[in-house]
Amino acid sequence: MTEHLVPAFLSLLDPVVLLTITTGTVVGIIVGAMPGLTATMAVALLIPVTFGMPPLHGLSLMGGVYCGGMYGGAISAILLSTPGTPAAAATSFDGYPMARQGKGGTALAIAAWASFWGGIISTFALLLMAPTLAHFSLRFGPPEYFVLAIMGLSSIVTLTKGSMVKGLIAGFLGLVVATVGMDPLSGYMRFTFGQVDLYDGVPFMPALIGLFSISQILDLTAETRIAEGLDGTSLSSIKRSKLPKGLGGTIVQGGIIGTIVGMLPGAGATISAFISYNFAKQGSKDPETFGKGNPKGVAASESANNGCVGGSIIPLLTLGIPGNSVAAALMGGLMIQGLIPGPELFTRYGTLTYGFILSLFLANLVFLVLGLYLAPYFARVTSTPNALLIPGIVILSVIGSYAINNNMFDVWLMLGFGIAGYFLEKGGFSTGALVLGLILGPIAELGFGQSLILSQGSPLIFFDRPLCIALWIITLLLMIPAFTSGRRKKQA
Amino acid sequence: MRKSLILLLALCTLLGAVSAMAADYPTKPVTIIVASNAGGGTDTMARLFAKFAEKYFPQPFVINNIDGAGGQRGFDALARAKKDGYTIGTIYTPHFTAHISAKRANYTIDDFAILYNLVTDPGVLVVPASSPFNTIEDIIAAEKADPGSLTGSTSGPGSDDAFALAQFNEATGCTVKSVPATGSSNAKATVMGGHVSMGFMNLSQIESNYKAGEIRILAMMTTKRHPSVPDIPTFAELGYKVVSDSSRGFAAPAGFPEDAYAMIVDVFEKVLADPEFLAAAKDQLEMNFMGPEEYRQYLVDLLEVTDKAYEKDPW
After folding, report:
1. Domain end residue (candidates: B198, B214, B245)
2. How far apart are CA B26 and CA B256, in angstroms?
3. Are residues B226 and B159 in the same domain?
């Protein structure tokens, strides 16, 4: 490896390469911030374009889009409660309340720092431990995915602010909605009413935009601005600011969770962000401040979703198993250059592969600098009069929902979810819990079904594998604070 | 915010230009409806074709991804597209005929003017390197020793892998149970992690892992040995009838203007003979060209196979 690092590093010093990294990252941030445009789409569009380029230029361009896209999702999630990417959904839980309190600029700076460190941690894991980690990721089989989904679902307990019963009802509602579509095991169509658009289940992104964005807008109509008066953080102070204090542990934890969950095909960045958020909240001394604008919530979610970038590339480069859909598109970009994933990438094509990995470090740096520099400007969006802002968000939401699948059906669905989300929130039912049920329902169902086929119907399979047991223990530990604090309140 | 609005405006203007009326063919870009999401194998094929077709066609080809429901949304959209010569699309098997067999499709083969097949990805039976199985006979012996204990990953009901598994069970008398996965990465991880006894997959998905020695291919589901892996026997050689593949190609809606169809066919001929296109495609696509006649016949034959499979074991 060492013999490749120096030439790899030198190849990055080419001004054209530096330019492609920067361009890729900027495009990624824009694509990430716009709901409906995804990093997967952008990378796929680039595949035929990069064919004519030297391999390193093409790969660093796509790597930049990936890194930038993961960070970009945070911008709209924080400022408008409209996650630009599903992975930023958990970012809005605390990011948007911060923006409402006029701390939008600070929240964006935290997101940039957390994304940066999450990305750096996972890229180091990719650089130093790729083969070992890839083989570890293969030990996750169907039973492990099921328990992982349960671990994710257990954070419903965390997401609920008031009544736990209402939170569980909301989560259950999400699980019920997730049953729509083709049964993954038998192929039977459930609750599709002959609508082809529902065969694959309720489209996730439109539902998310509706629940988070449209329901917030309906709430906003009663006010004139998202935030009355911004915090005093001037342009220069945000630019010069160091990593906000007390967030280091949360960020490192998020980066590691992101790397591990990112490696697992079938889990993904969204889930890693929720799990990391749950860890941060349950590990904190004042869990009740989460969901009301705790900077740790933003840091936990953003470090985890950027941690997925390096994580998802680990099995891609070593085994040819992309960890998520962006990595899958990236694999197309590798193949078109004649680079076939496997051990040869690290030996015969070592200089190129390590050059690509090192370019990810630079991409992280590019969005950090841009993110910190632009945060105060972006934050001004929140002081735009709602009379202007609301129509803008509606247009973005409508176009975003349409653009995902070029489908009008998704737009109506998004509006339906928006109205439902508004009334659910008013009634004290957490839309976050609903979204969690919606994401994790299919993973839990598939893992459960697959496991029982493997074990010939015996549920013991979920308890006799070491990784499963470890995941159960973590899940239980994460639940303890929620129950003990509840009891303490009752006694008081 | 302001920047994104400007971007949107620019997009709208562009879209407006696309929908301008035609006078003489081709006066505007031709849309390719891709029935899968961006970044997948079908999408890559279409984008590569679109890129090289520009050399031979006065107008660009524009990709429109309409994915979902196993390609059915895209196939439906293509069948119902305007027959003005400005929309063609991708089809892939076995999904294309499987939807007809399952009576879910809103189209039949006759709703399409079939163009070219570009890719045929043969089915393979694989086991991880750590598996005790070295031959099909080993699998049959394991089945006899403990009937019903074997599992095989597939990419879900109604997929070529599921058909292959059914054929395998019929030919060998085994009772391998299908463990459906979501997508090929998930299936591959399940096989390589040793969570299932074997995997029913396609060659392109695992070729690199085979070369790296991480998995073994026990048999090919082709009629002849495959040039990429000439050492691997076919099921037919071993005495079992298991033939399965997944193919990807192009079609136009039926009723496509004849002169336009002839021009598009001509573009396909030229692109498929372009050495640069072949160089770009060879590493990621299992190329196998079939002209309109042959491709259509292939689809008609396949429909019989999927019809039978549905009758026996509906999904």
Report:
1. B245
2. 13
3. yes
